[in-house]
# Entry
Amino acid sequence: MFLGLAAFCFFVQPTEAKKKKNKIEQKRQGENTEIPAPSPDPVSIRSVPDMSPAQLKQPQIAGFSRPVPKNTGVPFPNNTHGIDVSHYQGRIDWAEVARDPQVEYVYLKMTEGSNMIDNTYEYNHREARRNGLKVGVYHFFRANTTAEAQFKNFMSVYNKKQQDLLPVIDVELSNGVSESLFIARLEQLLDLITKEIGKRPIIYTGKHYYKKYMQGSKFRQYIYFIASYTTNPPILENNDDYNIWQFSCKGSIRGIRGDVDLSCLMGKHTLKEIMF
# Structure
């Protein structure tokens, strides 16, 4: 009771001018403040922006092992297939994963924004490569923090001599920033990485983000990895080409507990095109 009274006695109502000043300061700081990743990670659920009413009920099969059973929902069984994982998959038995002849490439979450490093990356990278899989990394882009800070975080872990595949920049959240700031920061991050490693990263996104931010722009010079959980491959604006289709976030692979993102190379595209 006495503590409450003391608190009441020393509480001073801020003036309207002070309130306004605080709001302006908060808005200024917001552009460079990390927003905590939602749970579960959208990298795992891939529900924005391309979930379809005709969402795949499958695949809940033990990998892609040939021959693929009928009506499993796995598209293009003869194409090159792969998976991507992060800390949400927990401890992975990579020897078991590598036994599946159609898990031919793997993307591992490495970094996010300006300060997050996936705590399973080092183990996943070492064990996946040790078991003969082609491995690449992805960085989860956060538009509400600077390109320089994200580049520094990315390069604090990335070693191009230890990579089989081109790195991926995962673009699926705008973090509330303006369209012009979103585009400027993404362009700058891609440019910084390209200059540093000597090759362009791949852009992962959904078809709606592609339409809003990327079609007919400088971004068209990049290879695309498109997420869309539909029964048929997504069609981009102007029938633009893309190399990889992520067709499900509900896959089941030996050696991994829980759901896994599944993808495949499209049409004439080959694994060689995404090799580092």
User: Anything to note?
Assistant: The beta strands are 81-85, 103-112, 116-117, 134-140, 168-170, 202-206, 224-227, 244-251, 260-265. DSSP finds eight helices and nine strands in the chain.
